[in-house]
Each structure stands twice: as structure tokens, then as C-alpha cells.
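Whiteboard transcription, Tuesday session. T.W. wrote the C-alpha cells on the left side:
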């Protein structure tokens, strides 16, 4: 079935949480993660075309609210996202988001979408896409430290994109690990619950850290990280929030999305401002080295960047051309005469009076 999206002078397609779930189920989680990874990698290849700026953040003691904008000159996208670690105590999500894709030529929105689910998907897809370039050859086991809302997406992305077959899971809350174990039961992964973070990293070629507390934390100590591993550090994503001991950073080759943002929000906020890092777009385009030896420790200091959201929104819009998972939203005023906005109100008034 072909679904025709509305044109720029009519209604705006809106993808609700329910629609997004239907889209994920229709496509399949692993296929969608793989396809998102490809979209994100393709946009990294044309990195220099994008407008880039660190996200606009409003910080509080409770968390952070951020806007993440970018444009490739043809389309414009932004995401509204929050990060409030204490939300889980009141039954709320730590992270929620929505996003907009618009046409640069006329400024009209092309898509409005939930991005709480989509952010989890694009974050996992980005992690796995980067790991594909940096992980040790033949890696099959990943440690997943922090078993909250991201853990299943990360595990499945590394299975789909990188060929991981075993995930060793640890969380300070055993209920979180039990939840993840239950959700991944029929995933085709060998999933192992670990009692300590040391047990989780033992024998793992890839270590993913994804914790939520807004504090300088030491999820990984230096003695836990041996030679030759790839670290996917995705939990430290705002000022004052880190997961890794500083000495790990000093032993690692560090790869980032956008240095100007990562130096403010990532693990490297612990380091000198001129500490060398490599931008991932350069590795993907063959302009910089990735993994160069079996004993090298590679670290993806990921804080999330607006181009990844742009890729995800554009991917969703493309899927809607053949899938009916959206609602036409009456978001834009569309008077018969573009100069007669007040007259549109008057005509509405007259129609209401006649009814």
C-alpha cells in the first residue's frame, strides 16, 4: 500500500508513540537498527555539509533540557530532549524527546515525530556503527553496564551490526538486569546476568557503559580495562556527568562526534582542553586512523549529536511513504490568501455562528 504524505501547503504528518511502535514492529527491531546505522553513517560521510553547533542546554539541579538543531542545506531538523535521572522515582522516563524535520526552501515542517523511542534506536545504531569501525576483529562478547531503557536497544544493535553473540549484563539495581534479561530472552543472544561490573567486563571485547546519574561517577576503574578492548561510553552526556576513571582516558585513543560539544559534556571534560581526539567522520571517510593494533584501547566518547537525529527523522519520513503510521496534524495556518490570516479567523467565526 502506498501512503501519500501531505504536501507543504497542507497538514503535517505526526508520528505518535503508538505509530512509532507500529513502525518498529512492522520493519523489525534489528532491521530498523541496521538501516538507521546505514543512514547515520551516510550522513557522517557528508559531515562537512551540515551546520554544526553544540546543543543549546538549560541545566538545573534536577537535569537538563536541550535543543539539538542541524541542517544539510536542503532540510532542517531539530530535537527537543530532556535528561532527568530522578524521573524514574516518579514513574517517568529519564529521557523524553520529540523532533521536527522541515524544508529549508520554504521553512514548512515536513514531519513532527515522537523521539523518545527514536532516540533510543538512533543512539544504539550510532554506537554499533562506530564500533564496526573501531572494535577488535572478531569481537563476539559485550559487557553492558547499566541495564536501563537503552540496554536492550544497544544489545540488539551490536548483534545486528557488529555480530555480537553474547552480552554480559550488570546494573546496581538487580531488577533492571532482570528486566533486560527478560526482554532479550528470545533475541538469539546469549545473555548473562553478572553480580559485579568486574564480572561483566571479564572476557568482553566491547564494553558499553550507559548509566543515568548526573554526577562524576567511576563506573569503570582503570584496572577493569585491559588492552585491546573497545569502550562505548554513552552515559556521560552533560557537564558534571561522567562514567570512566580519568586514567582510562589517558590510555585510550578517543573518538568523538563533535569535539566542541564533547569537550563540554563527554568523558573528555575530565581532560585538558587540547587533549587530542579523533572525529568519527574522518575515520569513516578514511581521513584518520581508527583501530591500528590488537592491543589498542579505543574509546567512543558519545554524547549524541544533532546529525544523528536528522538522519533518524529523515529515515522515518521515508518509511512513511509506504507505511500508514502517522496522523495528519492541523499544525499550519493555510488561508486562501497568504496575506489574509485575520480573514481566515473571520470566516471561521461566520461558519461557527451558522452551525
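and on the right, the sequence the group agreed on:
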Amino acid at each position: 500500500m502506498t501512503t501519500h504524505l501531505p504536501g507543504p501547503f497542507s497538514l503535517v504528518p505526526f508520528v505518535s508513540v503508538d505509530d512509532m511502535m507500529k513502525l518498529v514492529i512492522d520493519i523489525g527491531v534489528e532491521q530498523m537498527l541496521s538501516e538507521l546505522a546505514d543512514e547515520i553513517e551516510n550522513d557522517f560521510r557528508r559531515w562537512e555539509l551540515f551546520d554544526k553547533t553544540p546543543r543549546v542546554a538549560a541545566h538545573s539541579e534536577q537535569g537538563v533540557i536541550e535543543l539539538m538543531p542541524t541542517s544539510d542545506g536542503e532540510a532542517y531538523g531539530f530535537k527537543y530532549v530532556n535528561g532527568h535521572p530522578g524521573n524514574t522515582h516518579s514513574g517517568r522516563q529519564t529521557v523524553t524527546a520529540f523532533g521536527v524535520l522541515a524544508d529549508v526552501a520554504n521553512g514548512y515542517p515536513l514531519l513532527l515525530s515522537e523521539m523518545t523511542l527514536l532516540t533510543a534506536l538512533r543512539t544504539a545504531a550510532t554506537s554499533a556503527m562506530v564500533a564496526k569501525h573501531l572494535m577488535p576483529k572478531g569481537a563476539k562478547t559485550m559487557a553492558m553496564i547499566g541495564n536501563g531503557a537503552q540496554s536492550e536497544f544497544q544489545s540488539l544493535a551490536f548483534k545486528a551490526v557488529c555480530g555480537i553473540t553474547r552480552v554480559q549484563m550488570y546494573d546496581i539495581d538487580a531488577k533492571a538486569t532482570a528486566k533486560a534479561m527478560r526482554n532479550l530472552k528470545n533475541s538469539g543472544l546469549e545473555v548473562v546476568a553478572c553480580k559485579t561490573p568486574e564480572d561483566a567486563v571479564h572476557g568482553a571485547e566491547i564494553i558499553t557503559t550507559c548509566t543515568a546519574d548526573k554526577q562524576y561517577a567511576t563506573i569503570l576503574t582503570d584496572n577493569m580495562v585491559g588492552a585491546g578492548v573497545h569502550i562505548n561510553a554513552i552515559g556521560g552526556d552533560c557537564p558534571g556527568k561522567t562514567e570512566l576513571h580519568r586514567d582510562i582516558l589517558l590510555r585510550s585513543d578517543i573518538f568523538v562526534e563533535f569535539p566542541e560539544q564533547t569537550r563540554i559534556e563527554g568523558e573528555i571534560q575530565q581532560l585538558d582542553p587540547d587533549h587530542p581526539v579523533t572525529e568519527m567522520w574522518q575515520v569513516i571517510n578514511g581521513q584518520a586512523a581508527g583501530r591500528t593494533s590488537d592491543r589498542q584501547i579505543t574509546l567512543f566518547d558519545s554524547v549524541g549529536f544533532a546529525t544523528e537525529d536528522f538522519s533518524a527523522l529523515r529515515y522515518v519520513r521515508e518509511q512513511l511513504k509506504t507505511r500508514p503510521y502517522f496522523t495528519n496534524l492541523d499544525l499550519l495556518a493555510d488561508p486562501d490568501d497568504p496575506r489574509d490570516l485575520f480573514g481566515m479567523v473571520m470566516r471561521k467565526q461566520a461558519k461557527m455562528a451558522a452551525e
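Someone added at the bottom: The first strand starts at residue 12 and ends at 15.
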